[in-house]
């Protein structure tokens, strides 16, 4: 996976191109399966395409652990023990207030941008300095979305979905990764 590392606050985020693993046909199948519920899309009962996405998520998390210096000491001693994911459709004509949140106690979280409809330079993810409460910070950073790519970052980093402007719609998968020492 090709990666772009962006230094933010005391850590980094990585954008990884997933298009070599996830085809447009896979995307179309996933879009027809997501419906803004809290159902774990990585469960065995969901279509196999989500297992393929889970595999690419685990690979992206391992890349993050290896490429981001000083995120975790001795990253080679970490193994992924599980992950879960939910799908979301964010529509600028219906969604207006998305709260700041984090995904602790997971170690890493990822957002996979399935499809961006009429999203030009916005509609990504807004990240906030995890050393400060999101409501008190005045310097959040917006990461631009790229179709069929993962955005990986520490799960305790406050973030929120950026609502696309105009008539934009984005289809995303939000995932979290759990680990333990080997």
Description:
It is a single chain. With 182 residues, the protein is an alpha+beta fold. The chain is 15% helix and 36% strand. It has helices spanning 24-31, 48-67, and strands spanning 3-8, 11-17, 78-91, 108-117, 125-127, 141-143, 149-154, 159-161, 169-181. The strands form 2 sheets. Strands 1-2-7-4-9-3 form a 6-stranded antiparallel beta sheet. Strands 6-5-8 form a 3-stranded antiparallel beta sheet, with no helix packed on it. The radius of gyration is 15 Å and the shape is globular.
Provide a quick synopsis of the model.
This protein has 182 residues and is α+β, with helices and mostly antiparallel strands. The chain has helices at residues 24-31, 48-67; strands spanning 3-8, 11-17, 78-91, 108-117, 125-127, 141-143, 149-154, 159-161, 169-181.
What are its keywords?
182 residues; alpha+beta; six-stranded antiparallel β-sheet; three-stranded antiparallel β-sheet; globular
Indicate the topology.
Elements: E1 3-8, E2 11-17, H1 24-31, H2 48-67, E3 78-91, E4 108-117, E5 125-127, E6 141-143, E7 149-154, E8 159-161, E9 169-181
